[in-house]
Amino acid sequence: MVIGILGAGQLARMLALAGKPLGLKFIFLDPTPIACAADVGKHLIGDYTDKALLTQLADEADVITYEFENVPVDIIDFLNQQTPVYPPAKALLIGQDRITEKTFLQGLGLATAPFSDASSLAELQASMPEIGYPAILKTRRLGYDGKGQVVLRSAADLADAWEAIKNAPAVVEGFVPFDREISIIASRSVSGEVAYYPVSENNHEKGILRLAQSTQDDPMQAQAERYIHTIMTALDYVGTIALELFVVGETLIANEFAPRVHNSGHWTIEGSETSQFENHLRAVMDMPLGSTDSLGYAAMQNFIGNVPATEKLLSLSQVHLHLYDKAARKGRKLAHATIRTDSLEHYTDLISSLTELAKHSDDS
Amino acid sequence: MVIGILGAGQLARMLALAGKPLGLKFIFLDPTPIACAADVGKHLIGDYTDKALLTQLADEADVITYEFENVPVDIIDFLNQQTPVYPPAKALLIGQDRITEKTFLQGLGLATAPFSDASSLAELQASMPEIGYPAILKTRRLGYDGKGQVVLRSAADLADAWEAIKNAPAVVEGFVPFDREISIIASRSVSGEVAYYPVSENNHEKGILRLAQSTQDDPMQAQAERYIHTIMTALDYVGTIALELFVVGETLIANEFAPRVHNSGHWTIEGSETSQFENHLRAVMDMPLGSTDSLGYAAMQNFIGNVPATEKLLSLSQVHLHLYDKAARKGRKLAHATIRTDSLEHYTDLISSLTELAKHSDDS
After folding, report:
1. N or C end: fewer C-beta atoms under 10 angstroms in chain A?
2. Angle CA B9–B12–B15, to nearest 5
3. Using CA atoms, how far apart are residues A160 and B31, in angstroms rounded to an integer?
4. What pLDDT is attached to residue A146?
């Protein structure tokens, strides 16, 4: 069976590495001539709008998926005429626009941060009394890893912020005074079988995920599962999905969902019986999902811009290295390391060691 | 870093899949045009004696290894002039001839089955009074998976047996009345760091491994580690090595070693903190070795000739499938499945399910 993937970055690479043992072959479409998944499948180099390449992808693949949420929906519709594409276009359509997404989430009865449309500086200024400070101005579309976001601390920030996002249609969101940032990852198959991972507790810096820790019996697990179940059902979702959440006291505030495998679930490769990548593949092939049970304490540390020396990382017992085979560049996600251990003490020590190593190599 | 591998079968494939997350690239030399590792690296198609291809392999690789023990030693010597090859040629030289191997093992003080050179039918007949029945006549060289072996039950079998192995130089071995067949796998790095896996308890049928089960606190573990440590030291070994052993009461009888990753260690992919494949790569790159701690109960079931339906295998919770992407052929190893679980009861149930499934698909 051949899986087609739009995008050939590290998520596509890790999908392919999870799929090879299942006997799957992979074909990627990605405009970047040197793409890190190219080493584990066939790489069609060209634009995502190239009809000839899209047709070739649909011809050669039995099922198609994607590794990023900014895929134009008309491309999905085009591919779908020939070959099934999962997750469904509806998930993209809603997820690609922050206002549509927040409206969708509220429509499902899920709590979100207060937000308001900001199509002009005047509109932004007018909505601030209700939203309050601090707040975050975000472009409605195409934001990721903190890109296209500006923090607003007072009215004096508004004009510069509006300038900074280059007059793009935007949304202003009230800042959520969260106790913790968590995410829940789940998979849903074509037949509707669902599997949930334990929630991940996440630390971001400068808008980029740094550390994601698996949890055990997290008090918010059941509520998080209800949230993501509601979303998956509404979207008639197929594949792995991630929902980022803020914990405020005993309440969960839905931030955003990603219709794909997610950085905060990378610890599932070693930390779970079945990884988020394998379960995404099983889901889109309509195969039974694998167990999401944890194998002890697990965490993932991202390496941004630089990676510590391999020898140093491998000398840490129960640390697993994942290099993405990407050229180093400031602010770029180049690798991650996973901790997996049954000892809470060793776990805590390893987190300290890895965050320390990451700090020294980080140039984001 | 680029790893060169002689052979592009399933062992090379699993080495490459273990190495990609470490950022490694792979190049294989294998005469088979359709080789199952070709999907995860560059495949040089040609004979192992092709000097131009060997030179290309040595040019492109930073270190070279192999997936089968019948590599002619002069090829290793040729490659070694340019690029380091591990495990060392000495391991091949000794392991390729059953008499040299048994003599080597006895020279290290390790117990072996009684054996005698059988270079002719007359010599075979002459040695039987001392060896006794039952016994096994084996070609000295190029045997694997029970090929080149004939059981001798009485003097009446000798002439036919000699005919069956086609007059090849042979060894006759006394049958060991073993309680269990086990193997120990270990890795040793260029710097001499050593890691041992828990011994695996193995079931063979018709000379082919069927089921390998990890053990916990096996009473023979310490003795098995001493045996393999002695062998690795004598060979100045680098890489992963497997030693097959017979357990007779409280004694270990050394059967044979394989200077490579081994079928009886496939359960280490999910069942160990670090797999035999990753530790082989770490060893030949002179990187720190990874933990060989077990993650619960683990076992591996081979699928020979046919593979049960993927959906059936994936519906078993805590079973992991490894398809080798090889065309089905009678008696051919096509795939394996690993069980990994913390529940002894579930483990026992899964072993029954898998052996039952394997039995129905097996055509060896």
Report:
1. N
2. 150
3. 65
4. 63
- Report pLDDT for A207: 84
pLDDT of residue A134: 94
Q: Looking at residue B291, what is its pLDDT?
A: 98
Q: Do A322 and B21 touch (CB under 8 A)?
A: yes
**Partner B contacted by A323 (CB < 8 A):** yes
Q: Could B282 and A322 be called an inter-chain contact, meaning their C-beta atoms sit closer than 8 Å?
A: no
- Judge if the upstream peptide bond of residue A84 is cis by omega within 30 degrees of 0: no
In 3D space, the residue among B2, B14, B60, B92 whose CA is nearest the CA of residue B324 turns out to be: B14
Contact between residue B280 and residue B268 where contact means Cβ atoms under 8 Å apart:
no
Report yes or no: A25 at the B interface, CB cutoff 8 Å. Answer: yes
Confidence of residue B168 (pLDDT cuts 50, 70, 90): confident
The CATH topology of domain A2-85 is: Rossmann fold (3.40.50)
Cα-Cα end-to-end distance for chain B: 39
Instruction: Identify the band that residue B143 occupies on the pLDDT scale cut at 50, 70 and 90.
Output: low
Distance CA B251, CA A4 (A): 54
CATH of B114-174, one of 3.30.1490.20, 3.40.640.10, 3.60.20.20, 3.40.190.10: 3.30.1490.20
Per-residue pLDDT at B26 exceeds 70: yes
DSSP-derived 3-state class of residue A352: helix
- As annotated, the residues of chain A forming the CATH 3.30.1490.20 domain(s) are 114-174
Mean pLDDT by 10 residues, chain A (364 residues): 98 98 98 95 97 98 96 96 97 95 97 94 93 93 73 92 86 94 98 98 93 97 98 98 97 97 98 98 98 97 95 97 93 96 97 93 69
B210 has a chain A CB within 8 A of its CB: no
Q: Is A282's Cβ below 8 Å from some Cβ in B? A: yes
Nearest chain A alpha carbon to B286: A311
Q: Which residues of A38-52 are buried (b: 16+ CB within 10 A; e: fewer)?
A: bbbbbbbbbebebee
Residues of chain A in contact with residue B23, where contact means CB-CB under 8 angstroms, are 310, 321, 323-325, 335
Measure the CA dihedral B212/B213/B214/B219, to 10°: -110
| Closest CA of chain B from A226, distance in Å | 23
Q: Which residue of A has its CA nearest to B334?
A: A23
**Residue A360: predicted pLDDT:** 78
Q: Give phi and psi for A62, each to the nearest 5.
A: -90, -25
**CATH level 3 topology of B180-361:** D-amino Acid Aminotransferase; Chain A, domain 1 (3.30.470)
Q: First and final CA of chain A: distance in angstroms? A: 39
Query: For B236, left (φ over 0), alpha (ψ -120 to 50), or beta?
Result: left
Q: Does B326 touch chain A (CB under 8 A)?
A: no
Share of chain B above pLDDT 90, in %: 90
Task: Please give the Cα distance from A264 to A243 (Å, whole number).
Answer: 10
Report CA dihedral (B142, B147, B153, B155) to the nearest 10 degrees.
-50
User: How high is the ipTM of this complex?
Assistant: 0.94
How wide is the angle at C-alpha B98 spanned by C-alphas B93 and B100, nearest 5°? 55
